[in-house]
Task: inverse folding
C-alpha cells in the first residue's frame, strides 16, 4: 500500500471547521450613556424608581423590578470600599499585570452594585472594608472605555463599617 | 387537558435596524405594554419562558439579561429555548398542562441587524458536511425553490402572488416592515437576488420582540371576555439532512396540523411564519386551508420577520383576531431550521 492509500484508509478523527462571524455591536442606550460619561471622567449609574438602589454601570431596566430607569443619571464618586478581594497568582491572557496582583470587588460611594477591578497595594495590606480610589489614565488618553481607570489604590480613610457593605458580599 | 388561552399580546414594530437600542432595550417596552394590557405584574406570572439566540447577539448567555425586562425578584420560575418564542410558548403550555402554573409570560426577541443573518443561519446546518461549506440561508432556500419550480410543485407566479397578498395585507399592520400595493408582474420584473429567488420572495431582516400571556381556565376568563383558547398545539421536526427530506412539501407541518386538529372545523384566519414565498405556499398547502381562510391578515413573516419573535407573533396576531370576534377559529404556524425543517402548528378558538 502506498503512503497515500494508507492515509486514505485511516478514519477521520478530526475535522477542522474554522468559523467566524462579524458583529456591529450596539452597546444600547444605557450603556452608551455610561461610556460617554466615562470618556469625560465621570462614573454614571442609574437609580431604580421602585427601591432607590443605584445600579452601576447604568443599564436599561431594574433587574429586580423590571421597570425602566428612564433618563436620570446618577454621578458617582471614584472612591469606594473593598467588599471582597482575591490574590491572583495565575497568569491570565487578558491581564498584563505582574503576578501576584489583587483583584477587588469595590462598592463605589453612592452605588448599590459592585465593580470588579484591580488594586495596587501590598498584598498584606488589602482587607475587606478598605477605602480605595480610582487611578485614572492621563486625561488626554480617555476614551469611551472602562480602561480609563488603570487601577484602584488605597486612601488614608478609616475602614468602612461592615454593615455598610455586607449586602454586597 | 386543561383549558389554556392566549390572553395578552404585544409586539415591537419590525425594523431593519435598531440603531441605538440593544436587544434588551427593544424588549423592555414590549413587556411593559403587556403588563399594562393585562393588568398583571411580574409576580402574577407562575412561569416565564423566552426564546432568543445567542448567535444573533454574538454573546454567550445573552438571553439571561432578557430577565432585566421582566424583573426577577423575588426569584421567578423561568426557562429559555434557543428557538423562536413559539416554542417557548409550547413549553409554557406544557407547564400549565402539568399543573405547575396557571399563568405564564412568554417572550421572544432578536436583533439580527448586528450580524450577517444569512451567514449566521448557516450555523444551524449539520456541522460535518454542510456547515463547513458556509452556505448562506438565502442560497439554501433558493435550492429548495429551484426544486419546487423544476418539479412542478409551484410556479414563480405563485410565489410572487404570495408576496403581493402579504404586502397588501400588511398595509393595515402598523408593526409591519414591508407593505404596499404591488402586482405579480411588477415583482416578477425584479432582478434575482439568488436565482430563482427575488428580494420580494424573501422575508425582510427585522429587529424586534413580542410577548404573550397564557392563562388557564377561569384565570383566562377573568382577563379576557373572549379568550383565544389553544385547542391544539403540536410541533414536529424533520431530519437535518436535506437528502432524506421531500423539499417539495412540508411533511412536518402536515403531521403537526393533523395532530393539532386543524381540519376538524373551518379556519377563519391563518398566520404563517414562512420566511420565503415558496415556503409559505408549501405551509399553506400542508395546513390544508380552504379558499375561505384569510391567510396572513397581518402580512405574516414576509411583511415583518423579527428573528426569534416572528413565530410567537403569529400566535399573537391570530389570538387578537379571536379576541375581537373577527375570527372564531384560527391557526398559527411557526418554523425553525433550514427549509422548513421543524414546524409548530397552534389552533385557537373563541368558544
Result:
Amino acid at each position: 500500500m502506498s503512503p497515500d492509500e494508507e492515509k486514505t484508509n485511516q478514519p477521520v478523527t478530526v475535522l477542522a471547521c474554522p468559523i467566524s462571524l462579524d458583529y456591529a455591536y450596539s452597546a444600547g442606550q444605557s450603556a452608551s450613556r455610561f461610556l460617554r460619561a466615562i470618556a469625560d471622567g465621570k462614573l454614571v449609574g442609574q437609580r431604580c424608581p421602585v427601591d432607590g438602589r443605584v445600579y452601576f454601570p447604568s443599564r436599561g431596566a431594574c433587574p429586580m423590578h423590571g421597570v425602566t430607569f428612564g433618563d436620570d443619571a446618577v454621578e458617582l464618586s471614584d472612591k469606594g470600599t473593598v467588599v471582597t478581594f482575591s490574590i491572583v497568582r495565575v497568569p491570565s491572557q487578558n491581564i498584563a499585570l505582574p503576578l501576584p496582583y489583587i483583584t477587588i470587588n469595590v462598592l463605589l460611594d453612592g452605588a448599590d452594585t459592585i465593580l470588579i477591578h484591580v488594586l495596587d497595594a501590598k498584598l498584606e495590606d488589602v482587607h475587606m472594608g478598605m477605602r480605595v480610589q480610582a487611578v485614572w489614565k492621563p486625561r488626554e488618553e480617555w476614551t469611551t472605555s472602562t480602561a480609563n481607570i488603570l487601577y484602584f489604590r488605597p486612601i488614608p480613610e478609616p475602614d468602612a463599617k461592615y454593615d455598610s457593605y455586607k449586602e454586597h458580599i | 387537558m386543561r383549558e389554556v388561552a392566549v390572553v395578552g399580546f404585544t409586539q415591537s414594530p419590525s425594523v431593519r435596524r435598531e440603531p441605538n437600542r440593544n436587544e434588551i432595550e427593544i424588549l423592555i417596552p414590549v413587556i411593559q405594554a403587556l403588563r399594562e394590557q393585562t393588568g398583571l405584574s411580574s409576580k402574577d406570572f407562575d412561569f416565564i419562558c423566552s426564546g432568543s439566540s445567542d448567535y444573533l447577539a454574538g454573546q454567550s448567555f445573552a438571553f439571561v439579561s432578557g430577565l432585566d425586562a421582566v424583573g426577577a425578584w423575588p426569584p421567578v420560575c423561568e426557562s429559555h429555548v434557543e428557538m423562536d418564542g413559539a416554542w417557548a410558548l409550547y413549553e409554557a403550555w406544557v407547564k400549565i398542562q402539568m399543573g405547575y402554573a396557571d399563568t405564564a409570560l412568554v417572550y421572544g426577541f432578536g436583533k439580527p441587524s448586528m450580524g450577517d443573518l444569512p451567514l449566521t443561519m448557516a450555523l444551524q446546518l449539520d456541522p460535518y458536511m454542510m456547515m463547513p461549506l458556509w452556505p448562506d440561508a438565502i442560497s439554501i432556500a433558493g435550492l429548495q425553490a429551484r426544486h419546487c419550480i423544476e418539479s412542478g410543485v409551484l410556479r414563480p407566479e405563485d410565489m410572487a402572488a404570495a408576496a403581493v397578498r402579504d404586502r397588501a395585507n400588511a398595509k393595515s399592520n402598523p408593526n409591519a416592515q414591508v407593505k404596499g400595493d404591488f402586482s405579480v408582474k411588477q415583482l416578477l420584473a425584479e432582478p434575482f437576488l439568488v436565482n430563482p429567488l427575488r428580494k420580494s420572495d424573501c422575508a425582510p431582516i427585522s429587529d424586534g420582540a413580542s410577548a404573550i400571556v397564557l392563562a388557564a381556565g377561569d384565570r383566562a376568563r377573568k382577563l379576557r371576555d373572549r379568550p383565544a383558547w389553544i385547542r391544539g398545539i403540536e410541533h414536529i421536526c424533520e431530519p437535518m439532512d436535506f437528502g432524506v427530506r421531500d423539499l417539495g412539501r412540508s411533511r412536518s407541518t402536515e403531521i403537526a396540523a393533523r395532530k393539532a386538529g386543524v381540519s376538524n372545523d373551518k379556519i377563519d384566519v391563518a398566520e404563517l411564519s414562512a420566511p420565503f414565498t415558496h415556503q409559505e405556499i408549501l405551509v399553506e398547502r400542508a395546513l390544508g386551508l380552504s379558499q375561505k381562510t384569510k391567510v396572513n391578515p397581518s402580512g405574516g413573516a414576509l411583511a415583518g420577520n423579527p428573528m426569534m419573535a416572528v413565530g410567537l407573533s403569529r400566535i399573537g396576531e391570530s389570538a387578537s383576531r379571536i379576541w375581537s370576534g373577527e375570527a372564531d377559529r384560527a391557526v398559527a404556524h411557526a418554523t425553525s431550521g433550514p427549509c422548513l425543517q421543524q414546524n409548530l402548528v397552534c389552533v385557537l378558538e373563541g368558544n
